[in-house]
Amino acid sequence: MTETPVAADRAPVDPAMERLRSILDPARFREITESPTGYLELAGADIPSARGLGQQLMRTRFYATFYQLGRPLGMRIASALEAPGRDADRARTAARLNLSPGRTVLDIACGPGNFTGYYGSVVGADGLAVGVDASISMLTRAVADNSAPSVHYLYGAAERLPFRDESADAISCLAALYLINDPFGAIDEMSRVLKPGGRIVLLTSLAPGGRRERLHVRLLETLSTMRMFGRDEVTGFLRGRGFTNINQVSAGLAQTVWATKS
User: Fold this and answer.
1) Among 26, 27, 84, 243, which residue has the least CB neighbours within 10 Å?
2) By 3-state DSSP, what share of the chain in percent is helix, strand and coil, each rounded to 5?
3) Does domain 15-261 have CATH number 3.40.50.150?
4) Average pLDDT rounded to a whole number, residues 104-109
């Protein structure tokens, strides 16, 4: 019996990459390439320029290092009412996203991938976890620290996601919405790519007293270059987009909102 020869230079199939390609919208970019440090780039994709000190700092190597040092404290403050701790944070968020093996989850503004990598362990070998960020330094850290067979990292912007409509089972955006140029445009994009019945989790800022219109809150926004959301802004926006089962937990200057797309 004659055996069919196999080309020695044929690249092994990456199931997670094939799944990622299947949810990307080719109308939103020209080609996909891998950077020298392992994250993926989409030629022709539009990345908005950084506005304000907060966004500019977020895209630097210094911030990527500081973020890793300071994030546990920030998450502890945000989770003060919910049994704080990094492992508990990740497990709780995965549960709110209703993650299970085989699902596709997007982590928007993923930073160094602390949650993205964990999502990958939950969705397993048949699932896909994609971290998206506009900071090359953050993505480099993510690939180095939080890679897994079912995880990929993508250079992109929350306001212009390169995915097909209704292609993801779950989406998170944690500790980043307040620095995005157009936060509600970003939520609209997340809604667009989320499947009906899919879950979204947003961890973001909360104005002191829950009221953004106060003068001292506006001053705080100016000094910090971060948007301080009113108590009903994010939940009201999701409700207006048809989301149901909307939940909100607040602690100090942080709020976590999770909901289901109808």
Assistant:
1) 27
2) 40, 25, 35
3) yes
4) 97
Summarised one tens digit per residue, pLDDT across range 209-233 is 877 666 666 676 666 678 889 999 9
- Sole residue written with tokens 């990958």: 120
pTM of this prediction? 0.84
168 vs 228 pLDDT, higher one? 168
- Cα-Cα-Cα-Cα torsion 159, 162, 166, 167, nearest 10 degrees, comes to -130
Domain boundaries, the chain: 15-261
- Token pair belonging to 68: 């890793």
Q: Which residues, 6+ apart, have CB-to-CB distance to 180 below 8 Å?
A: 109, 158, 159, 186
Compute the distance between CA of residue 108 and CA of residue 28 in angstroms, rounded to an integer: 17
Whether residue 110 contacts residue 177, with contact meaning beta carbons closer than 8 Å, is answered with: no
